[in-house]
Hints:
Elements: H1 5-8, H2 19-39, E1 43-44, H3 46-49, E2 51-58, H4 65-72, E3 79-85, E4 91-97, H5 103-117, E5 121-129, H6 131-159, H7 162-185, E6 189-190, H8 192-222, H9 228-238, H10 240-260, H11 263-285, H12 287-291, H13 296-306
Parallel strand pairs: 1-6
Antiparallel strand pairs: 2-4, 2-5, 3-4
Helix pairs in contact: 2-7, 6-7, 6-8, 7-8, 7-11, 8-9, 8-11, 10-11
Amino acid sequence: MKIFSWIMKDTKIDFLKARKIAYVISCLLMVASVLSITIKGFNYGIDFSGGAVIDVRSKNGPVDVEKVRADLSSLKLDELTLQSVGNNNEQLMIRAQANNADEESQRIAVNQIKEILGNDFIFERVESVGPQVGEELKLSGILASVFACVAISLYIWFRFEWRFAVGALAGLFHDLFITVGLLSIFHMDFSLTTIAAILTLAGYSVNDTVVTYDRVRENLQKYRKMPQYDLLNKSINDIFSRTILTSLTTLFASISLLVFGGEALRSFAFVITIGVVIGTYSSIYVAVPVINWFDLRKAEEVEKDINPFGNA
């Protein structure tokens, strides 16, 4: 496509020239994330806060979602989400949370919903999550995210060396923290699906960084007299077309999910969409500028003295 033809050409952009502006942008996003998480917190879904999920099928054709919402509004629940499911609009998913999220309150709320909907619907699924289970799932999600970040950092450390690990970890923390902060800012649903998206984003972000670092290390051996600043810029330019095309491909898919995926996939698609943009940005303006703080040529010489065979 001609619109993307400029990406396929050999670019000679001075990316590092704008690194100070990028520092300011990143700092502002980090501060905004901290403030939002501290003040607003997260919009925890039923997975973490407790509640009930009810799948129903109408016996009388397409469901009037607004009418059902109006009928159920009299219950004054803490949370009530209705989503039409299927192409014929005859199925409805109801997510509800009682004012007091204990199991007895949830049971009463489910029974009240059944009474209001009456015999016009077939109840295909009724699942409840108590607050204690929700807390356990929340802890498991946090631990999974932490272990993933630690494992990724160790991989980068062994794959390259500690200076690259610092840059990769800085980029990873930057991506995940800002993405989580945007979840709070936009009051998106935070559930197990969101955790899955965050872990997916962690892998995607590091993959982009590894590709960049591979080119940096290759160029360090190939252009031994080139100034480090120019070498880092060249390395980014070398893989720029690959980075942009890969990101655009993923972005098109995630935007489609965000627009057409419905409520159930909205938070997942939001995390992937925002994460791809921030991850592409950080691989250029966070991961690479951080390793520019170190003397990579001197580090490479020390590494060769310690291990004459070099890194794998």
